[in-house]
Amino acid sequence: MAYMNCGYRRICRSSLIWLLIPVMLVGCDRKNRDAASHQPSTSHDKITSSAEPSGRSDGDEPGITIEVPIEVGGNTDNNKQDSGSGNSKQDSGSEQNPKAEEPEPDPTEDAFRSVSAGDCLPVYRTGYGDDWSQSKPPESVSCRGNYAGLFYVTRTGGSGLICPNGRAEDSWRYYSAVSKQTTTLCLRRIWVKNYCVLAVDSGDQSLSVGLSTAVGCNADRVPKPYNRIVVVSDVYRAPPDAHVGYCKKNQYDNRMYWMVLVSGGEDMVCFTDPNA
Predict the structure, then answer these.
(1) CA distance to 45, 51, 64, 149, 178, per residue, from 99 (Å)
(2) Phi, psi values for residue 76, rounded to 5°
(3) Domain ranges of the chain
(4) DSSP of the chain, one letter per residue?
């Protein structure tokens, strides 16, 4: 501008002013645009909102990301209200997710699992298949009780438990369709005098006694394969030379007796005809 050829100084100064005005206006417009470019964008702040379900427990699915549309020129307060309502919907949706239902209890399994080694149970086999006198273990009783059937619990466990299989030893197992687990009780019979058991008489003066069974001494019928009833006449500590002669009460006792060694040969159980 300093080199312009102006005839008069006043005219030259006036021209300079009009030439500078557009430049100043352009500068102001650019300044406004620059200032605007540094203002925070409220719509961009609300592009996405990620919320997780309230009260989330381990194992729940992560929260769903909600896509919020960009609102150009919208009210900032309205945008905040919309975002809040989106989170509220997400939270209410998480509360509607059903929780996993707990499996129903199995009272029979609970009864089996409540039994401990050392308990005594008033139960016995009926002779009908694998049936026991009760469908689940009853309350334990005194091991010195007077019962037709009385078993001492030696061990408890699951499906892998192997119980001793000696004479007068048995096992009672229960499989739960609810838990898919098996509970096992290992049992040893406690013999009580004057109670009757089932037997198989083969006709050669020998008996096969159902050592876990019990039956009424005057029962009219017995389940197959049993065909006889015998009564427990005595229980002794077995002598070294144990034999059936020890079962006789005296030298004048002419009744028929049968004898079984139990408890690993330590005890001797004597049986006779209940009507003899």
Answers:
(1) 35, 20, 18, 47, 19
(2) -60, -40
(3) 107-189, 196-272
(4) -TT---SSHHHHHHHHHHHHHHHHHHHHHHHHHHHHHTS--TTGGGSEEE-PPTT--TTPPPPPEEEPPP-TT--HHHHHHHHHHHHHHHHHHHHTSPPPPPPPP-HHHHHHHT--TT-EE---B-SSTT-BSSSS------TT---SS-EEEEEEE-TT-----STTEEEEEEE-TTT--EEEEEEEEPP-TT-EEEEEE-SSS-EEE-TTB-B-TT-S---TT--EEEEEEEEEEPPTT--GGGG-SSTT----EEEEEEGGGTEEEEEE-TT-
Edge-to-edge strands of the sheet including 182-189?
A: 120-121, 151-157, 182-189, 169-175
* pLDDT tens by residue, 52-107: 334 444 444 333 333 333 333 444 454 444 544 445 445 544 455 556 677 789 99
Taking alpha carbons only, the member of 118, 119, 121, 156 closest to residue 135 is: 121
Integer Cα distance of 175 and 158 in angstroms: 9
Query: Which one is predicted more confidently, 207 or 72?
Result: 207
Give dist(CA 42, CA 176) in Å, integer: 62
